[in-house]
Specification:
Length: about 250
């Protein structure tokens, strides 16, 4: 005769030896506290009151537990990504090199300027109409604008060239073996791309107008010297464009 075996343990008891035991205990804990919110969730899901049976309540409780778990996992993943970005010396919001990391690279490269045949050129980029964008669309779109600008810049400035975010409204690039004309061609290409493909945010296309400055490093430059020089070039470019706009007859 076949030997009588003991009945299988009730899976709902949440035995720790079972792989899903901890999950079932957590589910039971949430189910016991969930009914207070069941009606609200049922309303959101469009379930009529007379159809909120015990089985539906249990299904909603499981759904709530699952959503809570996914939200916690997403938050943890986002924190991990920010930590990784910081560890790699990158700005956690734009993905570009942080100011500290970028300036360290500039310092290392400027120390070699004049000792080899490699030219090192700084390109500074600023959003000319950022204040107008903020006034019209609010602070909420600023991070999206900066991410979009960084992605566009890196379409035309690829490694081994370096791209960094200096803070406020400034992106900078360190380019190797590119003269002023070549660098301006890259800048013009970025401007054309932004004009042809504006930033899309909350159902609206947002025009971004960049302005650039270019400076070719010289032997003996410090990072601060180079940054001041390229910033001066950018201001001069901005003033020149503003003067050109003022000369355009009104109404055209």
């Amino acid at each position: 005769m076949r030997k009588k075996t003991a009945p299988d343990p009730d899976p709902d008891q949440g035995d720790d030896s079972h792989p899903g035991g901890a999950f079932r205990r957590e589910l039971q804990r949430h189910e016991s506290s969930a009914p207070a919110n069941i009606q609200d969730i049922a309303d959101v899901l469009g379930i009529p009151d007379d159809q909120v049976t015990p089985a539906v309540e249990k299904a909603i409780a499981r759904l709530m537990l699952r959503v809570n778990g996914l939200s916690e996992n997403l938050a943890e993943l986002q924190r991990h990504q920010v930590d990784l970005a910081r560890a790699e010396g990158r700005d956690p919001f734009t993905g570009a090199l942080s100011r500290t990391s970028f300036m360290q690279i500039v310092e290392n490269e400027l120390a070699l300027t004049g000792t080899d045949r490699t030219t090192r050129t700084l390109l500074l980029c600023e959003i000319a109409d950022l204040d107008e964008v903020l006034q019209r669309y609010g602070q909420g779109c600023k991070e999206g604008v900066f991410n979009f600008l960084h992605r566009t810049i890196t379409e035309f400035i690829l490694p081994p060239h370096q791209v960094g975010y200096l803070g406020c409204n400034d992106f900078a690039a360190l380019l190797y073996n590119m003269d002023e004309q070549d660098t301006w061609q890259r800048a013009d290409a970025i401007s054309r791309r932004l004009k042809k493909h504006p930033f899309f945010w909350k159902g609206k296309y947002i025009s971004i107008t960049p302005v650039f400055g270019v400076y070719i490093a010289r032997a003996g430059d410090t990072p601060e010297d180079a940054l001041v020089a390229v910033d001066y070039a950018l201001r001069a470019e901005k003033e020149m464009k503003a003067a050109q706009l003022q000369r355009i007859p009104s109404g055209l």
